[in-house]
Specification:
Belongs to the class-I pyridoxal-phosphate-dependent aminotransferase family. InterPro entries: Aminotransferase_I/II_large (IPR004839), AspAT/PAT-like (IPR050596), NHTrfase_class1_PyrdxlP-BS (IPR004838), PyrdxlP-dep_Trfase (IPR015424), PyrdxlP-dep_Trfase_major (IPR015421), PyrdxlP-dep_Trfase_small (IPR015422). Its cofactor is pyridoxal 5'-phosphate. This protein has 392 residues and is α/β, with parallel strands linked by helices. 41% of the residues lie in helices and 12% in strands. Bound molecules: pyridoxal-5'-phosphate.
């Protein structure tokens, strides 16, 4: 039998990917599945971005690029942050990666040692603790249910020990959609700075926020609060480019250099063609983003209202991203004792796929993605409601 390394044996298979797989299997068997599982925009990549990739191909941009990415893309990223957030980063502080996921992987692997503690607020994106464990460090989870799933500086302060090396923040959050208010974010960074702790700010959902929340990046913080900060960014969600595998990291020069080493000896540069497309995404017109946001807004509004009417559901307002994260504990009765069992019943009886909150560290919750047409969303919620009424 195959020998699995100790490092990999410690990792869990991705629960979000498993939900995706289940939907694929059922659809292949001819079942009418409503899939509210995926964290993936249902929109096509905007045309002008595709055209840029086609031009890159025609122009022969099909070779290795510098590991950190082309100058063209790096200057696009720098320009985007300068225009939108008023901070001018140096070329040595920016690198392109194969998706936001690789930016986070590089940042963690380049920083933590075995025995280090890494603070991860709950509920968390499933990948954070897995990378931390892979790197030999210890995830230390912070409970945030009492503050409505938004992290506070006080909670961070209480979780810090002499072994704490890193804090991972994801706002807007996958799975909760919650947003940390900028003032609180600043206080968190003051605490981290005071204690010499590094921070990764995963800003993959940066542009998808709903009023009164506003688009905000940790890049706007004053320099002295960004000395130990890495921003992980992505084109996947903002421009519906999940399959292109393109993202970036912005961090102090020394951290970026260490991340570059990781990337040099693993994947090298992200795809040359995707880099050209991503540069166009940041440099080109942004009305495609506004159009997608408007459609997400419409679905979100309908969804929150509909979920609040389901017996046994409690719904915190998701202020960003494209997920609702209802508390379904009011529906857990008899055989259905856990959110996992609820999700299982939903698949089997209602042919509807959602994601179990337990995978995100929030047993009793489910994640519903509204990155799907309003019509399918409505059908899915109808099915969810039917099951909830039966149980509650
Ligand atoms: N961070 C969060 C919170 C996410 O939800 C995702 C994707 O689901 C990513 C990072 C990574 O996305 P990508 O690697 O496609 O840029």
């Amino acid at each position: 039998s195959f020998h699995v390394s100790a490092n990999v044996a410690k990792m869990q298979a991705s629960s979000t990917m498993m939900a995706m797989q289940k939907a694929v299997e059922m659809r292949a068997a001819g079942i009418d599945v409503v899939d509210l599982g995926p964290g993936e925009p249902d929109f096509d990549t905007p045309e002008h971005i595709k055209q840029a990739a086609i031009e890159a191909l025609r122009a022969g941009e099909t070779k290795y690029t510098p590991t950190a990415g082309t100058r063209r893309l790096l200057t696009s990223i720098i320009g985007y942050y300068e225009r939108n957030f008023g901070t001018r980063f140096d070329l040595s502080e920016v690198m392109a990666t194969a998706g936001g996921k690789q930016a986070i992987f590089n940042a963690i692997v380049a920083l933590v040692d075995p025995g280090d503690e890494v603070l991860i607020p709950k509920p968390y994106w499933v990948t954070f603790p897995e990378i931390v464990v892979f790197a030999g460090a210890k995830p230390v989870f912070i409970e945030t249910e009492e503050t409505g799933f938004t992290l506070t500086a006080e909670q961070v302060k209480r979780a810090i020990t002499p072994r704490t090396r890193l804090l991972i923040i994801n706002s807007p959050s996958n799975p909760s959609g919650r947003v940390i208010p900028p003032d609180e974010f600043r206080r968190i960074m003051e605490v981290a700075t005071e204690h010499g702790i590094y921070t990764i700010s995963d800003e993959c959902y940066l542009q998808f926020v709903y009023p009164p929340a506003k688009v905000w990046s940790a890049a706007t913080l004053p320099r002295e609060l960004r000395d130990r900060l890495c921003i992980a960014g992505s084109f996947s969600k903002t421009y519906a480019m999940t399959g292109w595998r393109i993202g970036y990291a912005i961090a102090p020069r020394e951290w970026t250099s260490a991340m570059l080493k990781v990337q040099q000896h693993s994947t090298s540069n992200p795809t040359s063609i995707a880099q050209r497309a991503a540069a166009e995404a940041f440099d080109g017109p942004q009305d495609c983003v506004a159009a997608m946001l408007a459609e997400y807004s419409r679905r979100r509004e309908w969804l929150i209202g509909a979920l609040r009417e389901i017996p046994g559901f409690r719904v915190l307002e998701p202020e960003g991203a494209f997920y609702a994260f209802p508390d379904v504990r009011g529906c857990l009765r008899g055989e259905v004792k856990t959110s996992a069992a609820f999700v299982q019943r939903l698949i089997e009886e209602a042919h509807t796929v959602v994601t179990d909150g337990a995978g995100f560290g929030a047993e009793g919750y489910i994640r519903i993605s509204y990155a799907t047409s309003l019509e399918r969303l409505q059908e899915g919620v109808r099915r969810i409601r039917k099951l909830a009424e039966k149980l509650a």
